[in-house]
Amino acid sequence: MFCGAGLSSLSLLMRMLQSEEFKDCRYLLVDKDQKKVNDRTWCFWEKGEGFFDSIVHKRWDKVWFHGEGFSKQFNIAPYQYKMIRGIDLYQHCLNILVKKENVRIIFEPISSITNLKGKGVVELHNGVRFGARKWLFNSIPFDKPKAEPGTHYLKQHFKGWFIETAAPFFDPSSNTLMDFRVNQEHGTTFVYTMPLDETHALIEYTLFTENLLQQEQYDEGLRNYISDYLQLNDYSIKEEEFGVIPMTGFTFPERDGNIVYIGTAGGQTKPSSGYTFQFVQQHSAAILRSLLKKGHPFPPKQHGGRFRFYDNVLLDVLVNEDLPGDKIFTRLFERNSAQRIFRFLDNHSYLPEELLLISSLPTMPFLRAARRVI
To answer: Which residue range(s) make up the domain with 326?
Structure first.
């Protein structure tokens, strides 16, 4: 059974249906939404062909980084920076799922998910209840995760505009990964620009802070950026999106009886960056491997060990304002290759290059944070 028909449930369910071992099992997928609107956009870097490569909307081989006193375009090979629209992923998966006789899809709000004597039970808003025979995969976060000493809870919140210009304006061969030249009065703030072609782009105003802004403040940030930094005035807004992602070292639950937590609800969002898409893909593949080899869906944690420590230290620096976030990221990109930074943020780096990356940052703010986190 799958609760929630978003990225994590669809990523795992599609993999299970492609597996010889699980393709004929009976599945129930429940979500309140029928997934008919483009409610989000995933942007991520990746080497080679990914599981959802056929629905990648746009890809780039080069990215720009801008900070105070520093701007550079990076060639990111062997990575590509990719964009997948939410509506494309939903339609791709649901068009396949509705043709499967062993998959039942119910669009109805979920009132509760409970552990009843070790078995997951879902109660829908209409009063109907379902019990999971084997595993219930839940991607819906009902409760805030558990706080621990040395951990913090920030939010990555963002508003994006898909805009269209009257005349050719953008260079679609490169995107702007981060632009920290914007006002930092609210905390760590940057804008990214994803050109789709010469007249269309996604512009996203993003913050790493404890509190959300008023909607008009996001709009003001977008307007100012487009006017002051892109120096663009003749455009129209075609679509809008808004989202909030937890950035936290808090402990997310792994299971409750046969209820298995996946996606952001299961801690698959990178605590120090908010990146989720690739960690969900890795977790989905790891769950399937664990089911096939060990008979249970509990692979080793992706955000444990030294990477959890790194994440908690960076969050502590940001929360205590020992060093502004724009200064941290500018120093990283000024003194390291994009590839090294990507490996580090993917939790795929090795200790020697991690030491090189860490040494490119000011020592004392991170040393103080490390002492507080330990």
So the answer is: 317-373
Per residue in 223-240, pLDDT (tens digit) is 999 999 999 999 999 999
The CA–CA distances, whole Å, from 43 to 84, 111, 169 equal: 7, 31, 21
Q: How big, in percent rounded to 5, are the helix, strand and coil portions of the chain?
A: 30, 30, 35
**141: preceding bond cis by omega (within 30 degrees):** no
Under 8 Å between Cβ of 366 and 332: no
| 327 within domain boundaries | yes
CA distance 264 to 181: 30
Distance, in Å, from the CA atom of 90 to the CA atom of 111, rounded to the nearest integer, reads 23
Global pTM reads 0.95
The strand ranges marked E within the chain are 2-3, 27-31, 41-47, 58-60, 62-67, 70-75, 79-85, 103-107, 110-116, 119-124, 129-131, 136-138, 153-165, 174-179, 188-195, 200-209, 235-248, 255-256, 259-261
Domain stops at, among 213, 247, 281: 247
Q: What pLDDT is recorded for position 146?
A: 77
Does the residue 167 lie in any domain? yes
Tell me how far CA of residue 261 lies from CA of 151, 258, 286, in angstroms.
21, 10, 14
Please check whether residue 139 lies inside any domain of the structure: yes
Q: Supply the CATH number for residue 37's domain.
A: 3.50.50.60
Domain stop point among 187, 215, 247 = 247
**Euclidean distance between CA atoms 329 and 337, whole angstroms:** 12
pLDDT for position 205: 98
Same domain, 49 and 140: yes
The tokens for 89 are: 């992923």
Q: How far apart are CA 270 and CA 369, in angstroms?
A: 19
Same domain, 210 and 326: no
Domain count, the chain: 3
Ranges of residues in the chain with a pLDDT under 70 are: none
Query: How many whole angstroms separate alpha carbon 85 and alpha carbon 79?
Result: 19
The length of the chain in residues reads: 374
44 within 8 A of 60, measured Cβ to Cβ: no
CA atoms within 13 A on the CB side of 143: 11
Contact criterion met (CB below 8 Å) for 129 and 121: yes
Our measurement of the distance from residue 268's CA atom to the centroid of its chain's CA atoms, rounded to an integer in Å, reads: 8
Give the span between the Cα atoms of 207 and 186, in whole angstroms: 8
Whether 176 and 45 map to the same domain: the answer is no
